[in-house]
Write a structure and sequence with these properties.
This protein is mainly β and about 160 residues long. It has 1 helix and 11 strands; from the N terminus they run αβββββββββββ.
């Protein structure tokens, strides 16, 4: 399945009431889910000839409760709620430029337009251009070039144009 066929499949599923579709063969497994508040839009994973085994229900782990004797400092930095995060739509390798000897698509401080390519994600030997969904100023690039990324991982933060 090539990228064009994948896009056509996603568009076709979007026009139906199908909530989830899984395609499997010996080379890959593809699961498409319609967006909701807690689910990803598209989940893409590769498996090389891995036999499938029926899964049994898994019991949820028991909650561990501990009462600290001293207050614990929060290590998570506060993120400006006005910023928009550009997140990874798939698992793959993040590339800031179209080729190693070319400049990055965007740098911190650059103004970007909706639809502008901001990076490339390599997944299953395909180079997928990621386009910005908002116009604004890039305030942070959160991933290093050629770094592996996970689905939903924040890649950049953009201050939208008002």
């Amino acid at each position: 399945m090539n990228f064009k066929e994948l896009r056509e499949l996603v568009a076709a599923i979007d026009q139906t009431d199908i909530a989830e579709l899984t395609l499997k063969n010996t080379e890959f497994e593809l699961t498409l889910r319609k967006p909701s508040a807690l689910q990803p839009d598209v989940v893409l994973s590769a498996a090389h000839a891995v036999p499938t085994v029926p899964s049994a229900p898994i019991a949820a782990p028991a909650a561990v409760v501990s009462t600290p004797t001293e207050p614990v400092a929060q290590s998570t930095p506060t993120i400006d709620p006005s910023l928009v995060e550009i997140t990874a739509p798939m698992v793959g390798t993040f590339y800031r430029s179209p080729a190693p000897d070319e400049p990055a698509f965007v740098e911190v401080g650059d103004r970007i337009q909706s639809g502008q390519t901001v990076c490339i994600i390599e997944a299953m030997k395909l180079m997928n251009e990621l386009e910005a969904e908002v116009s604004g100023e890039v305030v942070a690039v959160l991933v290093e070039n050629a770094e592996p990324i996970e689905f939903g991982q924040p890649l950049m933060r953009v201050k939208p144009v008002k």
